[in-house]
């Protein structure tokens, strides 16, 4: 990941992995792209239907088209990312945009895997039972959306670590503590702990059934599904902070790729979901309502954006330091 600034890849010979891992990357990358194509198809149908006058009752035509146009663009980027991870030429893609979109994609989807599993067991709703505006969606749309999310999440979880290990081996090889700890600084770690702890504690409190910060008018939105999402967000935020601490302090000893991959995914999750939800909290399109008070929404998502950026900066600093030590 030293090339996130320079934009050049590690020479091929230093990043080789076994043939089995390469095959897994190819299959997972193509599988991710194919799965997300189903989600894209649904979103295109929704945009076309809106242009023909079929819009959910709680949205205006303009809001609904804009919302789905944004998700169409995100889907196209996600499909392209899957193809980049699968193809050999993907290692020649400039590093800065590749890392950014991989960070966002991994943050959006990989942390949703445990949520989707628990949601299926406990009766939550991973994909939602409507078209985003309170109107029932046909079953085929829900199936395509579910496959799109789950397939892309699983594909990224497999293909992305292999790709990054091949392209930036110095940042992932070896064990924690086999070189001097990365100089991230105690003050930086404390700031990160505070940024992560504030929303994580709030999400944990809501998961346990607390109601402080929730609007009485919309408190019913914090149902089983809402509490599962809050708990999942808290879990990944704490995992990310612990992973950064492991990298910074050099303990406990474990394969380096574990905390690197977890910190990358967690920081992306904090940033991506907060950056997605913050405009909703500010603009409230289509009569949008969240379970929490608007001010609470803005604060928690603002902290999520900042925490994700700080965590990624710490991770990149550690990767560059390790690269220089290896070099």
From TrEMBL:
Keywords for this protein: Membrane, Transmembrane, Transmembrane helix
Entry keyword annotation includes Cell membrane: no
Entry keyword Membrane: yes
Residues that span the membrane, as ranges: 30-52, 64-86, 98-122, 142-163, 184-206, 226-244, 256-276, 296-316
Stated name of the protein: Uncharacterized protein
